[in-house]
Automatic annotation (TrEMBL):
UniProt keyword terms in alphabetical order: Kinase, Serine/threonine-protein kinase, Transferase
Record's keyword annotation contains Transferase: yes
Keyword Transmembrane attached: no
Alphabetical list of SUPFAM superfamilies matching this protein: ATPase domain of HSP90 chaperone/DNA topoisomerase II/histidine kinase (SSF55874)
PANTHER family: ANTI-SIGMA-F FACTOR RSBW-RELATED, SLR1861 PROTEIN
Protein name per Swiss-Prot or TrEMBL: Anti-sigma regulatory factor (Ser/Thr protein kinase)
Provenance organism: Azospirillum picis
InterPro entries: Anti-sigma-factor_SerPK, HATPase_C_sf, HATPase_dom
Length: 139
């Protein structure tokens, strides 16, 4: 069993397709439930889209590192980028879940979905790097 996937992505939304394929292959190779692949791909899509869309202001190429690892009874992920400092779990405004759908502002549900989908989430800043941790209990 190859219990770890490490990838380096460019700060380009087109990279999400390559990541999703690699995650699906990792899930299948490790005989994990396909729903886990869906959950992690959903979270990766949300978090990386936010990083690419809002985290870089210089218009130059950057790298986003992604690690997915089966460890003990968890599937864990780590996302590392050198974008602007931003804790998605503390700094993102809470979504409006009470207004009619036509009255809500566009966006704002992504981080909420990540927190609802994962069993654990965490953020830390090390030097010029954002590090986001995600975990889902297996079984």
């Amino acid at each position: 069993m190859t219990n770890r996937l490490d990838m380096v992505l460019r700060n380009d939304l087109a990279e999400l397709e390559r990541l999703a394929a690699a995650v699906d292959e990792f899930i299948e190779r490790n005989d994990l439930p396909p729903a886990l692949g869906f959950s992690f791909n959903l979270c990766f899509d949300e978090l990386i889209t936010n990083t690419v869309s809002y985290g870089y202001h210089d218009g130059t190429p950057h790298e986003i590192r992604v690690r997915l690892e089966a460890a003990g009874n968890e599937l864990r992920a780590e996302l590392v980028d050198d974008g602007a400092a931003f804790d998605p779990f503390a700094d993102a405004p809470p979504p409006d879940l009470t207004s009619d759908i036509d009255e809500r502002r566009v966006g704002g549900l992504g981080v909420f979905l990540v927190k609802q989908t994962m069993d654990r989430t965490a953020y830390r800043r090390e030097g010029d790097r954002n590090i986001v941790l995600l975990a889902k209990t297996l079984g």
